[in-house]
Structure formats: C-alpha cells, structure tokens
Design goal:
Layout (H helix, E strand, L loop, with lengths): L30 H15 L36 E3 L26 E3 L7 E2 L2 E10 L6 H13 L10 E5 L7 E6 L1 H9 L10 E4 L2 E5 H6 L8 H16 L48
Parallel strand pairs: 4-5, 4-6, 6-8
Antiparallel strand pairs: 1-7, 2-4, 3-5, 7-8
C-alpha cells in the first residue's frame, strides 16, 4: 500500500479547525451568537433534512485564509490550519432533551490511543490515521474509533473521490491523528499554531484533527438531537481540509450545503448536509470562497 508523506513539517493556520504556520485560521466570530442565528434558520430550513444530513466546520476572522488548492484537484495541497464548529439539522419535536454532561474545562494533555485498527477502505493513496482520546475524560477510545471508522468508510465520504483510502492504525507511522480533547487542551494545541479556538471549536493543525469534547458531546444548539450526524460533519470537514479542500459557498437555495461550506455562518438558502458526496456519487460543492 502507498502512504502519503506525513505533513508535520507543513505549517497550517486556519481558524475553525486549525493548522499552523501555513495552514490555519482562527474562529474569531461570536460563536454562540452565530449558533443562535442558525437556530432561527433551523426552524425554517432544517425540518425536512434526513438523518444523514448536517452542517460543517467553521473558520473565520480577518486574518483567515482559504486553503490552497482547488476543490476537485487530483492531489492534496497544503493549506493553512483551521478552527471550526459545525451545525446542522433541527431536533425532532418528539425527542426528549438529553441531560447535559459534566464536561471538564481542561485535562492533562495526555492521550490514550484506540487499540486495534481497521482494514483499508477506498482506492488510491492509503492514508493511515490514529484515534486518540485525552486521558481522564470518560470517553472510551474504542467507541470513538468505531465512529470515526464508520464516517471515513461511508460511501458518501471522501473515498468516493476515487483517490483517497483510509486505514486506522494503533501504532507505527500515521498520516494524521483524530484527537478528542477537553476545550482547554484543544485551545493549547491549536494555540501553538496561532489559532484561537476560544474553548468552543475544533481545529486542524499539522497532523492533528483536534475535536473539542464539548462539540463531540453536545454538537450545537441546532444539532443537539442529532449528535452523531454532527460528528460526521466535524470529521468530514476537517479531513477535507487535510486532503487540500478549501471553503466553498452555497451553490443555490434549496440545494445541499457542501461539507466544505462554513455552515455555522449561515445556510444562505442551502439545506444542511454532512457528506462530501451524495447518494449518487456526485460531489457536493459550491463557489470557492477566498
């Protein structure tokens, strides 16, 4: 199997899901204010969305830069880091509220790697990934790994591009690492690359896809009852950045929002969607956003 060279030496700066040095942007906007706006939009535009739909990661701020490389390019391109939050479909009116879990503000900054691995899925360049969970947050690493495995293996995911393949490992070289951590730890790691995640959002820096525990457990107000869909949104958006995809806009009212659209900033008439490709294998995209 062919593996892609790890990009730890490439800096990335972005804000929403972040990178360092050359790959990232920090989320600067009023996070909960934006979510409140989406909650209003949810009442009008999210009701008809099925369980496979959701929103995507966010990055914003005056210094934010779109990832280098064109969407649909045949090879990954490096781009700045990003900090992101995702939003999507509205809750079912028949679903009872789930008690809010006790989420620690910060943790020790050490991680446990999920044991075992997965077979390679997809065709083309095989990207090996690891799943880590911060120590002491009462989240089983094997459970997180199973969810990430399913997301990356979904036929609507990035393997549908015909160029990308994924395989989870628990030891040896890894091209990227999905890490679920407390807000404080995410802030610290993302901050090392100049990203401000504000205790609220995710980031993509160097080889790390940093997932804020608060977002993993609670999603966002408009997606609070469809948390697993929201998790797919986080992983697909951030891995999309890792593959070299930049942000795009809404392709038109009533159409699915691209997974690389900053849906947290508003749906602009699009319907929430968490997958890069639709059920017919068509790439869901929109106009490039600089």
């Amino acid at each position: 199997m062919t593996t892609r060279t790890a990009r730890s030496s490439r800096g990335r700066r972005r804000g929403g899901s972040s990178h360092a040095v050359a790959r990232g942007r920090s989320y600067k906007g009023p996070f909960w204010g934006a979510l409140a706006a989406l909650t209003v939009l949810g009442a009008a535009g999210f009701v008809a969305v099925d369980a496979g739909s959701s929103g995507t990661g966010v990055r914003s701020g005056p210094t934010e830069r779109a990832r280098a490389g064109r969407l649909g390019s045949t090879a990954p391109t490096s781009a700045p880091p990003t900090a992101s939050a995702s939003a999507s479909a509205s809750p079912s009116p028949h679903t009872s509220p789930t008690p809010t879990p006790d989420i620690p503000a910060t943790g020790p900054g050490t991680f446990i790697t999920a044991a075992g691995g997965s077979g390679a899925v997809g065709s083309g360049t095989v990207l090996r990934y690891r799943v880590d969970v911060e120590t002491g947050i009462n989240l089983p690493p094997t459970d997180v790994a199973r969810q990430v495995d399913r997301i990356l293996a979904d036929p609507r995911g990035w393997t549908a591009d015909g160029r990308s393949a994924f395989e989870r490992v628990s030891s040896g070289p890894a091209d990227f690492v999905v890490r679920v951590a407390t807000p404080g730890t995410v802030d610290k790691i993302c901050g090392q690359y100049g990203l401000d995640t504000g205790g609220e959002v995710n980031c993509d820096v160097a080889k790390n896809v940093m997932v804020n525990l608060r977002r993993w457990l609670l999603a966002t107000p408009v997606y609070a009852h469809r948390v697993k869909d929201y998790r797919a949104l986080i992983i697909n958006h951030e891995v999309g950045h890792f593959l070299g995809h930049g942000h795009v806009g809404c392709p038109g009212a009533g159409r699915p929002a691209p997974v690389m659209m900053q849906q947290i900033k508003g749906m602009h008439g699009c319907l929430p969607n968490v997958w890069p490709y639709d059920d017919r294998g068509r790439y869901v995209t929109g106009p490039a956003v600089s």
